[in-house]
Structure prediction request, 325 residues.
Amino acid sequence: MSALDDPLPAPLATAAAIAPVPEPVLTVERLVKRYGEQEVVRGVSFAIRRGECFGLLGPNGAGKTTTLRCCLGLIAGDGGTITMCGQPVPQAAREARIRVGVVPQLDNLDPDFTVTENLRVYGRYFGLPDALLDERIPRLLEFAGLANKGKQGIRTLSGGMKRRLTLARALINDPELLILDEPTTGLDPQARHLIWDGLRQLLSQGKTILLTTHFMDEAERLASRLAVLDRGIIIASDTPRALIAQHLEPEVIEVYGDDAKTWAEMHGRRIAKRLEVAGETAFCYAYDPKPLLSDLASRAGLRYLHRAANLEDLFIKLTGRDLRD
Prediction:
């Protein structure tokens, strides 16, 4: 079961009229969470505006899922305050979750029910009448690309279908806030793009999304703002483009091959503004790539790729290349 699983699923409410200056849908201020003597969340603060996708990024063990569990009231923090959908958490967590949809890391669909039955049973947890469910379920199945799968059992679905059904299920009550904990982990590129298309539809409809992901291209495509969490602390927060411009050189040249490391030590470090070697790849960061490209053009044994700096470069620079377990 996922760390975000809860006996009572998280629903959604009919969207309220948007005020000229709306209150944040979720506000976290100086959140602290300890397990014994280990402080895994250390004064985290952020706010999510209505209608935006906010990305929470970080390596394994950074405190992302713990932060989400505190926001949902599944565990109590040891300090700080949380307000979600106008309700204090954890004091009124159940009332807040009535207006929130959750897609956990791992699918927790009921394998004994059909696709349609999974949506219907989930909706009944929140007292939704059958007449309303009869209206919503076909639209949600259409949204998820599962319109012809309603009578099928869960075991017959592919991983991508299950993920899309989990997303549709989280929308059964029309939530104000949708929390997605690594929604496309384990999916092939086609399934990921289908889910991205669905999430972009939701954003265009004014939904608010909190997204955690290890796919930097996913965050860059979907998030209007993001925060990088490392060792329980937010170390950077802004729009993806602003963070890249603030922390990185704009041009990147990746140099591959058996001789890449030797070239990097003998020539690359002299030319590049900043250079990192990982395995058989040298990452050269520069404001002006011309001197690097000129040098590489004369070296037939090396392969290289010239590209713009991206969110993965930012993530690596801020959190390091070391593996986290």
